[in-house]
Structures are given as C-alpha cells and as structure tokens.
Design a protein that fits this description.
Blueprint (H helix, E strand, L loop, with lengths): L1 H61 L1 H4 L5 H4 L8 E7 L4 E4 L15 H9 L1 E7 L6 E8 L3 E8 L2 H7 L3 H21 L5 H14 L14 H36 L3 E5 L5 E4 L1 H11 L16 H10 L13 E8 L2 E9 L5 E7 L1 H35 L6 H33 L7 E4 H11 L1 H6 L3 E5 L5 E4 L1 H18 L5 E9 L3 E8 L21 H4 L8 H11 L4 E5 L5 E8 L3
Parallel strand pairs: 12-14
Antiparallel strand pairs: 1-2, 1-5, 3-4, 4-5, 6-7, 6-10, 8-9, 9-10, 11-13, 14-15, 15-17, 16-17
Helix pairs in contact: 1-6, 7-8, 11-12, 12-17, 13-15, 15-17
C-alpha cells in the first residue's frame, strides 16, 4: 500500500511537472515569438531613428528649416549604406517640405492624419506598416516629432524586411526538441524526488517574492534533503550578514552626515565611492565654483600637492605597508577661509580625503596670540609701577607724606590691575563659556537707573546732564550682570573722555518684532573717523597718551560689543554732526 502511494506520488509529481513544463514551454514559445519580433522591429526602428536624428541635426546645423530649402539633404543620404530608405520632412501642420523619393513635394497631400504622424504627435515617435498613397509601395514607416518638424523615415517593406521580421524556425525546432528531452529526463529524476523538493520550492518561492523566512525549515533525510538543509543554512547566514552590513552601513552614513568635516573615499583610479555633503560644499568654496563634482578635485589648482602625493603612491610598482600607510596633511587658505586637507592611502590603494574648515580655529588662535601679547603688555605697566613704589617704600628714611603717597599710588595701580584681570575674565567667559551666563527677565529701565545712580558722583563732578527716553517699560530676557557692564562702560566712557558740561542721551528710538533699537550719545569731544573701525578691539585706545592716566583698561568697549552680541544684537559707533559721539545698538527680544 505504501509502495502504491509512493508510486502514485511520483506519478503525480511527474504529471504536475510535465504539465507545468508544457505550459511553460508554450508560454516561452509565445513570449519568445513576440519578443523576437519586437526585438527585430526595435532594430529597424533604431536604424530609422538614427537616420531621423541625423536628418534633423543636419537641418538644424545648416539652418535649412529657416531658409526653406531642404534640397541639400540629398547629399546627406549618399553616405547611407541602405539605399531602400525613404526620408520625408514635414512641418507641424503636416505639410510635406521634403521627400527623398518624390521630387515635386508641393503636389503631395497633407500627411497630418497619417497613423505614424498621429502617434508621433501624441507620443513623440510612431511607426506603421502600410502602402504609400504617393509611391504605391509598401513601407515600414517611422516618424519622430521635434519642436518644429516631423522627420519620417521609411524602409521598403519587401521580402528582405519581411524575412527579417519573421521568427527563426530553428528556435521553434530547438524548443520542441528541448521539451521532449526534458520530458524524458523528468521521468527519470522524479524517482529521486521527495517532499524535500516541495519544501525547497516553497522556500525558494518565498525568497523570490522578497518574503523573509524566520521559522526554521525542516527537510527530510537523504541526499536531496541535506542539500536543501545546507541551502537554508546559507540563507540564514546571508540574512544575518546582510542585516549586520545594513546596520553598519546606516551607522556609517549617519556618522558621515553628522560630521562637520568633509569626507570622501575613492578607488585607486580616483573614482568616488562614498562622500558626505560637507565635502562637496568645501570643494565648491576652494574651487570658486558652485557645481563641481567630487572627482573634479584632481583638476583644482589648489590641490597640486595632493595630486603629486597620489601620483607618487598610486603607481603599480609601489607597495603600501598596512602598518605604515602614506598620509598627507596641508593647510589651504582660500580668501577669508582656511581649510585643513588630510589624505591617507590604504593598503589596497583606495584612499580617503578629509577636509576640515579650521577658519574659526585659526582665527581664535590669532586672537589668543594677540590677546596674550596685549595682556602681557598691559599687565607689565601697573606691575612695574607697583614694584617701583614698593622698592621706594623699602627705604626707611622716607617721610610719612611720601610713604603715604607711594602707598596710595601703588594701591591705585593694584586697583587698575584688578580691573584689568576682571575685564579679561569677563571677555574670556563670553568667548568660551557663553552657556554659563544665566538669562532672566529684567526691567531695562530699572537697570539703567541703577547704573546712572552708581555713577551719580562722577556725573555731578563734571556737570553732565543725563536724559533717558524710553517710550515704555522694557522687559527683556537677558543676563543682568552683562547688560549692567554694557551701560556702565558706555556711561563711564562718556564721563572719562567726553569732557565737562556735556549731555548724555540714551534713547530707545525704535522696536520691531525681533529687536529693540537704542542710541547712546554724548555732546562732548569727537573721535577721528579712522578710529571707529577698531574702537571695539581689545586694548585699542583712541589716544593712548591721554587714556592711560584716566584709568581705563582698554577693554570696556570690547566688553560692550561682546555682551551685546551675546544678546543677539549688534553695535556701531560714529560722530554726531553737531559734535560728540553716538553708539547705535540693538538687543534681541528672542533670548
């Protein structure tokens, strides 16, 4: 009974496979018949299309359509090997302008409603097999539509073309023979098939449809079952490896996108493998172009040193040690921008290029160098004076009045030194630790009043009148300490250098949805215009000889500018026409 079932099972497999193969053979035959016929038609149409393109390019280059004389096209077709090609040129209304087989084209009727013309009008190109009403011959027509013309090419539909479009009978004979041989072979192999075939078929079908097989497939014992099991195991390993590669790939892409550096990887023949957007952005800046590609880096003049490095190390006879990879690093200056280029060549001679924008770092480096020199210079004066007074105080024979005077002068210099160190500390905090400043809602009117009151004695001493024009109480989110420094330094600057019997005016003259606009002016002394470009620089003094005795650190306006920028604003300075100095600045509402 089991044997009978087994035989029946094999018989079913044989019948099923035979039926499938018969249907498959018929479908393949039909498909191949259609495909071969279409392929040959495509070959003819490609040939006709090339002639149409050649014709239109000749017309356009020679300007024949503008002159209205297309007769010179005859000379073009002397170079076409196939003499059975007919070319017709029509305007967009269907009027025949030229025909290679008809001399008197003016007698030809309008061709707009020809099937191939109508197809070209709708789809850009069209073809049709029919008899010509003009010549009486049967043609294979092909028409291509251009902006201002139709170009129709046609091959004589003679025995040669018909045979070309026919299907190879040898293929049919070959397919039938193959079917018979395979059918016989199916009868032999079905004896060795079992349920493993269907399990493997189901497994493969699910994979071909993109379905992920998560459950473990159990195959029966036997040689075919072992092969099936190995296939399933290979699939599991490939799936795991693919998943891991995809994860690593996504991590790499995310990393490249997140980096501020421009990174690109190239093959040994300088073809791009992978790059991020920053790489192209920096290339455009360095090359002064907006559409440069990553592979054009090797034509940019600024990378001559890189090209020499690559040419030297990418030669076939050069061996690269995995432990000592060749690398190059250079600085590229481009206008106001500075870039660091780093190249490294790997053992397989692929290579990596990294471009970093170090403009800010270079600028900070120069600022720090200048500030270090300025600090050393500014600290030297009060320290020298203090040391001088201390040396004098060491003398025991000094009078009490002299001793007190020296101590008082040394104390004043120590105060100046303390102010200098405090101002430097504030500037450094604003430059390097801006997030440490606490922002809160403050009443600007009250803050200005407090600053004015703290300087009231100095204002009265020089008979200075202060006017504040605030249209309403101004509530702003800001750091109170920094804004106090802004107004304190502006007031103190006017008191020290403006002169006596002057007027100081603080005016909130405008506001919009984003900013408050302020003017701080005094009616005192003017400043030479050349100083306004540098007046906010650290340690810059308009008149150094007169500034030092007045106790300034040279950092007041630098603190003002940095504090205002920290609050999202900008500041500028200039002279008033009627005399005096005016500072215009903004404070952001969005802090």
């Amino acid at each position: 009974m089991a044997l009978f079932k087994k035989l029946e099972y094999r018989k079913k497999i044989f019948l099923y496979l035979s039926a499938i193969f018969i249907v498959f053979t018929i479908l393949v035959l039909l498909f191949q018949y259609k495909r071969e016929r279409e392929f040959k038609r495509d070959q003819i149409e490609v040939s006709l299309n090339n002639i149409a393109e050649l014709t239109y390019n000749f017309i356009e280059r020679k300007g024949l359509d503008k002159e209205g004389n297309l007769g010179s096209l005859d000379s073009l077709y002397l170079y076409i090997p196939n003499q059975n090609i007919r070319v017709t040129v029509l305007d967009k209304s269907g009027k025949v302008l030229y025909d290679s087989e008809v001399k008197e084209v003016v007698k030809m009727e309008n061709h707009l409603h020809r099937p191939e013309i109508q197809k070209a009008l709708k789809e850009g190109s069209g073809s049709n097999i029919r008899e010509s009403a003009t010549t009486g011959y049967e043609y294979y027509y092909y028409t291509k539509s251009y902006a201002d013309l139709f170009v129709r090419t046609a091959a004589h539909y003679d025995v040669e073309v018909k045979n070309f479009l026919g299907v190879e009978k040898l293929f049919i004979f070959y397919l039938v023979t193959l079917f018979l041989v395979t059918w016989w072979f199916i009868g032999l192999i079905t004896k060795n098939l079992s349920s493993a075939l269907f399990k493997l078929k189901d497994f493969a079908t699910r994979l071909s449809h993109g379905e992920e097989v998560t459950e473990k497939v159990e195959f029966p014992k036997g040689e075919f079952g072992e092969i099936s099991k190995q296939v399933a195991e290979i699939y599991d390993k490939l799936t795991a490896a693919k998943s891991k590669i995809e994860t690593e790939k996504n991590k790499l892409y995310s990393h490249l996108i997140a980096l501020n550096e421009g990174i690109a990887f190239f093959t040994p023949n300088k073809k791009e493998i992978l790059r991020n957007n920053h790489f192209i952005q920096y290339l455009n800046i360095i090359a002064d172009e907006t559409n440069i590609s990553e592979e054009q880096i090797f034509q940019i003049q600024n990378f001559s040193k890189l090209n020499a490095f690559l040419e030297k190390n990418l030669k076939e006879d050069v061996h690269i040690d995995q432990n000592e990879l060749p690398h190059l690093e250079e600085i590229i200056d481009k206008g106001t921008r500075t870039f660091n280029l780093h190249a490294i060549i790997f053992a397989d001679k692929s290579f990596e290029l990294v471009i970093r924008d170090i403009t800010k770092l270079e600028k900070q480096k120069k600022i720090k160098e200048e500030m270090t020199a300025n600090i050393a210079h500014e600290l030297k004066t009060p320290i020298t004076i203090i040391l001088g007074y201390l040396e004098l105080l060491k003398e025991n024979h000094l009078e009490d009045t002299e001793r007190k005077r020296y101590i008082s002068n040394a104390y004043l210099q120590s105060e100046r030194l303390s102010d200098l160190i405090q101002d430097i500390s504030v500037l450094q905090k604003m430059s390097e630790a801006r997030d440490r400043f606490k922002f809160e809602v403050i009443n600007l009117n009250e803050l200005i009043y407090e600053v004015k009151e703290s300087l009231n004695i100095s204002l009265k001493k020089k008979d200075i009148d202060v006017k504040t024009r605030m249209s309403k109480p101004i509530l702003i989110k800001a750091n109170k300490s920094l804004l106090t420094s802004v107004f304190y330094n502006l007031f103190e600057n006017a008191i020290k250098y403006g002169g006596e019997h002057i007027e100081i005016c603080l005016n909130n003259y405008l506001e919009d949805s984003n900013f408050y606009y302020f003017s701080f002016s005094n009616t005192g002394n003017n400043i030479d215009e050349r100083h306004f470009l540098r007046v906010f620089e650290r340690f810059y003094r308009v008149d150094e000889d007169r500034s030092r005795p007045k106790g300034g650190t040279g950092l007041g306006l630098a603190i003002v500018k940095n504090a205002i920028q920290l609050h999202g604003g900008e500041i500028s300075a200039g002279n008033l026409k009627e005399g005096g100095v005016e500072f215009l600045f903004t404070l952001s509402k969005s802090n």
